[in-house]
Design a protein that fits this description.
By secondary structure, the protein is of the alpha/beta class. It has one domain: Rossmann fold (3-Layer(aba) Sandwich). 38% of the residues lie in helices and 15% in strands. The protein has eleven helices and eight strands. It has an eight-stranded mixed sheet, with helices on both faces. Strand 1 and strand 2 form a beta hairpin. Helix 8 packs parallel to helix 9. The longest helix has 19 residues. It is globular, with a radius of gyration of 18 Å. The N terminus is likely disordered.
Length: 315
């Protein structure tokens, strides 16, 4: 292995170790530059493990108005870099506030859903795509998972259908009842990065009557952590080709860099782009962005978050 390949391998391993460690144990509410955070502590569910939900309300939030809603995954890492294990965050409150002040976007709130620590991969992995694979492909994927950090006992079993039921059947009704929000599809969006990008794509495909748009940043199209002999990308592409909603009522945003884990994504993303084109999606309702040199970190996503927010919520 030459020096460059060794360096790339080291960066990937480092990213795997730090991005997918159990959640940083936040005991206090995240600090935000503007607006306000309200926490639903240990939100109970019959579908998933209890988890915090940190809701960001914009500075001028008022019960007399109505707001769109952005459901975001990995809620631990959205607002306050000082609360994150790696001192990074999406800084979504900063990006949203700047866009609102410039009157560029319509008002919205953010519902930041904490991940489930050891359940993160199974919660976010598109279940029907995995179940569609034959046993040889599943065994290959399981072997790759066994060589990684992913928590499993008797083989990998995605639980993303239950995770989406938690959002759609339990969390969304609570938000609709207790906050001044629009409840219709045109004002309900979902967003995430990496595995969170996968589950955002899956959410819109599985619940096209609930979600009007999906932001999928650095989408983890390889599913495991290698592109060698990996059957998962083809399963994702087949699922998307079969289940993508008809164009007209939904917005999709994809992006990726090409460093650390993101180095694996551009070839698969280009195949996704072909599916989008073939299904009739155009630049009015679908956008894919490529960011050469950018890596798989919250700092990278924070730098470009204003782009999908403007695409989804722009006036």
């Amino acid at each position: 292995m030459n020096l460059m390949n060794a360096a790339i391998k080291y960066l990937i391993q480092l990213t795997m170790m730090v991005l997918f460690l159990p959640s940083f144990a936040q005991t206090s509410i995240p600090s935000v530059v503007e607006g306000n955070i309200e926490r639903l502590s240990h939100f109970q569910s019959k579908y998933v493990t209890p988890r915090h939900v940190d809701i960001w309300l914009p500075p001028d939030y008022s019960d007399s108005s109505r707001y769109a809603v952005l459901y975001m995954h990995d809620g631990q890492m959205l607002y306050d870099p000082e609360k994150g294990w790696n001192k990074q965050s999406w800084n979504v409150d900063d990006a949203a506030t700047d866009l609102l002040k410039s009157n560029t976007i319509q008002p919205f709130i953010v519902v930041g859903i904490w991940n489930g620590d050891t359940t993160r991969h199974s919660d976010y992995f598109p279940q029907k795509a995995f179940e569609s694979m034959d046993q040889v492909a599943k065994d290959t994927a399981n072997a790759q998972f066994n060589r990684s950090h992913v928590h499993m006992r008797k083989g990998f079993k995605p639980q993303s259908d239950n995770y989406l039921k938690f959002i759609v059947e339990e969390l969304k009704p609570y938000i609709d009842e207790n906050y001044a929000v629009h409840t219709d599809r045109a004002n309900t969006y979902v967003a995430g990065s990496s595995m969170g990008g996968l589950i955002s794509m899956y959410a819109l495909c599985e619940y096209p009557d609930v979600f009007g748009g999906a932001i999928c940043m650095s989408t983890h199209w390889i599913g495991t952590f290698t592109d060698q002999n990996n059957p998962i990308p083809d399963a994702f592409l087949t699922y998307l080709d079969t289940n993508l909603p008809e164009p007209g009522n939904h917005l999709f945003y994809f992006d990726c860099g090409d460093a650390t884990l993101d180095q694996f994504y551009p070839p698969i993303q280009r195949s996704v782009d072909e599916i989008m084109k073939n299904k009739g999606y155009d630049q009015e309702i679908w956008k894919t962005q490529y960011f050469p040199g950018e890596n798989h970190t919250e700092d990278s996503w924070s730098k470009r978050l204003h782009i999908p927010l403007t695409f989804m919520f722009g006036k």
